[in-house]
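Sequence in, structure out. Go.
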Amino acid sequence: VVASALLAAIMPLALAEKRVVKVPEWPESPLFSHAVVSNGLVFVAGTVGYDMVNMKKCEGGIKNETACAFRNIETVLRVANTTLENVVDCTVFLGTMDDYAAMNEVYTTIFPKDPPARAAFGASGLAGGAAAEFKCVATL
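Output:
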């Protein structure tokens, strides 16, 4: 009985996996992975509106940065073998809440139906002077 209980307790740990997702064309960071897959979920790192090949900010304001960031997220998800349709949670960090409505104009085109759960926060000092940063979780 004790052995069965012990096996039942450690079995979920044995099933836990961790697979790092790296987009081959993008530079690697010693600070974070592009995404990590674990137990059927893809955890995408915070993503900003940057051309990740040339490492240049996508200019044009919050709308363009939002679209650019989600193109990056879509790339990461494709490498992880999933899609934006499988995003179940998204956290939005805005450099100023004044951009909330404009960001939502683009966001609703990315998730036009059955959007993921979401939280949005005002934040200062986003990476690279970005207007917004997005952190998503998707299923495989």
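Check: The longest helix spans residues 62-79. The mean pLDDT is 92.
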